[in-house]
Specification:
The complex is a heterodimer of chains A (215) and B (253). Chain A has 215 residues and is an alpha/beta fold. Chain A has one domain: Rossmann fold (3-Layer(aba) Sandwich). Chain A contains 7 helices and 8 strands. In chain B, helix 2 runs antiparallel to helix 3. About 23% of the residues of chain B have low confidence. Chain B has a two-stranded antiparallel ribbon with strand order 1-2. Classes of the chains: A alpha/beta (215), B mainly alpha (253). Chain A: InterPro entries: P-loop_NTPase (IPR027417), Rab_GTPases_membrane_traffic (IPR050209), Small_GTP-bd (IPR005225), Small_GTPase (IPR001806). Chain A: Keywords: GTP-binding, Lipoprotein, Membrane, Nucleotide-binding, Prenylation. Chain A: It is found in: Cell membrane.
């Protein structure tokens, strides 16, 4: 079976999208993967997936994005989604202060359930609603610095900074992985060239030749 | 539709509003002109599925997914090993099918047929009685009793009003498909609630409920078998075309 171009990749990175319900996680994802936006999108049930393959520092990276339901009571199961995730996009709504206040709770979720090396990016979405803004950029920026998160403000509706946000996260993951594998003399480094599954800590990164390894 | 959901959250505050409820409600709103009819159908459906929407998380669906995984293990070893190898053993892709009963996978008309087929195939008189008995207390209307009522019936009802604290012993094993927090308000009058039939067949109903409680598991089984059938029918497609968990969505199951 011939592979479609988007199936050719060097690495597969699992990314989770988290944040309160209604902040725009699903629309950020549809903007990034399909360049689509819907004003009447339905709430996410459980978890939905989308992928996009793009080039990061000369390597084809397939990002497998797990879009999760934001409602509080779904958290009992969302924690299971964090397993094996290399990156997390923590989204809040710049017009809803509570969604920003809850960022610390989501961070705690990640610290409790995700790998400690997970690359977290804070995203303030809906910047197009300028007249309704209720969370200042500076506040979020300083919060992100304190918590050592990268930060960007986006508008899924206007397609502002959406690609940039995902790309920054993927690049950062790639940098961490290549730094880690180059700095160690264990067989993991050799595996990159051989196209085998590369194990970083508790996580596994798939290369396209090892398509069926367990996550 | 938001009015109906708001009323539901008001009568069942222990459950409140949960994402996904609107998917289950909207067909009733379209089918019935009267919002009250839509409400009662939705309320009856949730008696079956309340465990999926409770505050503690969708534990009903999680049990169903475990059952589904077990079915796959027993019936299709090749699929079982394939899904394990691509890391899909948690069956996340089936979560939505079970939570909103294929509402997002099928078209509106297809879903009406699917639901009708499922509920017709799944009809079990004792289950029906069980669901009828589990009316949220706030929705029960007391209707004065007919003078010719049987004396045995009164005893049953008196016992129930004594144990109004919803102790599990009321229903034997305490295994019930619906949350324990929704008790029945019973007195010497007939309780009447929404679509319930127990207004005219009360005593038979109580008898059946005890049997249901002790014999049925808490997993709503038919939707699980529907998903299992979908997997079996798509066996070749799944084995050949899915290389990672996201492919299962793309495969158009």
């Amino acid at each position: 079976m011939a592979r479609r171009p988007d199936e050719e990749y060097d690495y597969l990175f699992k990314i989770v999208l988290i944040g309160d319900s209604g902040v725009g996680k699903s629309n950020l994802l549809s903007r990034f993967t399909r360049n689509e936006f819907s004003l009447e999108s339905k709430s996410t049930i459980g978890v939905e997936f989308a992928t996009r393959t793009l080039q990061v520092e000369g390597k084809m990276i397939k990002s497998q994005m797990w879009d999760t339901a934001g409602q509080e009571r779904y958290r009992a199961i969302t924690s299971a989604y964090y397993r094996g995730a290399l990156g997390a996009l923590l989204v809040y709504d710049v017009t809803k202060p509570t969604s920003f206040e809850n960022v610390s709770r989501w961070l705690q979720e990640l610290r409790d359930h995700a790998d400690s090396n997970i690359v977290i990016m804070l995203i303030g979405n809906k910047t197009d609603l300028k007249h309704l803004r209720a969370v200042a950029t500076e506040d979020a920026q300083s919060y992100a610095e304190r918590e050592r998160l990268s930060f960007v403000e986006t508008s899924a509706l206007e397609a502002t900074n959406v690609d940039k946000a995902f790309q920054m996260n993927l690049s950062e993951i790639y940098r961490r992985i290549s730094k880690k594998s180059l700095s160690s003399d264990d067989p993991a480094h050799a595996n990159i060239k051989q196209g085998k599954t590369l194990v970083i800590g508790a996580e596994e990164i798939h290369t396209n030749k090892a398509c069926c390894s367990a996550a | 539709m938001s009015d109906i959901l708001a009323v539901y959250a008001w009568v069942d505050p222990a459950t409140g509003y949960c994402q996904g409820m609107s998917d289950l409600l909207s067909p009733f709103v379209v089918l019935f002109e009267d919002n009250a009819d839509a409400f009662w159908c939705f309320e009856m459906l949730l008696r079956r599925m309340r465990e999926n929407f409770q505050m503690e998380g969708p534990t009903g669906v999680m049990k169903q997914l475990q059952a589904l995984w077990h079915i796959v293990e027993l019936t299709d070893r090749e699929m079982f090993s394939h899904l394990s190898s691509i890391g899909a053993e948690s069956l996340h892709f089936a979560f939505r099918m079970l939570l909103v009963l294929f509402r997002r996978e099928l078209s509106f008309n297809e879903v009406l047929c699917m639901w009708e087929m499922m509920w017709a195939a799944d009809f079990d008189e004792s289950i029906a009685f069980h669901l009828e008995e589990n009316c949220p207390e706030i929705l029960v209307i007391q209707i004065p009793k007919e003078p010719e009522a049987e004396s045995g019936e009164e005893i049953v009802e008196n016992n129930n009003s004594d144990s109004k604290d919803d102790s599990p012993s009321k229903h034997g094993s305490g295994e019930r498909t619906v949350s324990e927090s929704n008790g029945m308000k019973l007195s010497l009058a007939h309780p009447f609630c929404g679509l319930t039939r127990n207004f005219w067949s009360k005593s038979n109903g109580m008898h059946s409920v005890n049997m249901v409680s002790s014999t049925r598991s808490t997993v709503d089984e038919l939707p699980v078998f529907c998903v299992a059938a979908i997997l079996v029918m798509n066996h070749q497609k799944i084995i050949k075309q899915t290389h990672s968990i996201d492919d299962l969505i793309k495969a158009g199951l």
